[in-house]
Amino acid sequence: MRIDVLSIFPGMFAGPLDDSVVGRARAEGILDVRLHDLRAHAADRHRLTDDYPFGGGSGMVMKPEPFFRAMTALGEQWAFRPRVILLSPQGARLEQARVVELSKLGGLCLLCGRYEGVDERVREGLVDEELSIGDYVLTGGELAAMVLIDAIARLLPGTLGGPGSTVEESFNENLLEYPHYTRPRFFAGRSVPDVLLSGDHGAIRTWRRKQSLLRTARRRPDLLMRACLGQEDRTLLEELLREGELAEATRLVRWMLTGDRRDRGSPAL
Ligand code: 9WO
What we know:
The chain is an alpha/beta fold. The protein has ten helices and nine strands.
């Protein structure tokens, strides 16, 4: 997959994209990240990429010309037009399902804003999709672009964690990961749960599933609501209820298990 990035700070991308899974994907040609310095595409001789906001107010706005000129220059390199994505707090929140969809595309072009914002004509004229990695303000879109590239890279065929990995399947189900343990068996006054050393693979699988359900119910009840739960999951949640493990999530899980959603606008009815 080819990913073009437009930024006034292309140097920021050195480091995060050089090591580990992303670095390897790039070295093997699975991922082709091309960084472009927006300043090189500025229209004036001072190479300005920002200007004062019409209507007044504090701070600066990114000028539209460098984005349009850069895209025109890149258009000559592209066999097909890639999906153009602006990283900004105004975008739709990025989720794993979206990452999976984007990882199937042939090419992406990521636009990184700076200052107080980007001239609206960039959105209107160039951007297919606006994405946010979370509800907080950064100093620019670059770190968000790196997060997106990292999330996509590990899904590309040929990279570790690529299609078919169990880690991927577990997140797709909207459940959090179960607790992991490695050697030593006894550490810092705590021991590894006995079931994991029992050699009983059925019991281990059930314990892990129950732990995933417990964690998701307690930490991310919003995810549990979206999870596809089978009959075994319902049984495990009932056990957790009886064992008093669900804490503040007790009422939600009890409601989920009753199946009585007639007054709640559930798509089930
Ligand atoms: C700056 C600002 C200053 C005062 C009051 C409100 C403000 N909003 C912003 C702002 O959103 N600045 C952005 C900085 C302009 C576009 C690039 N910047 C950015 C992208 N910050 N955070 C992101 C981002 C991108 C994706 N996901 C999360 C955050």
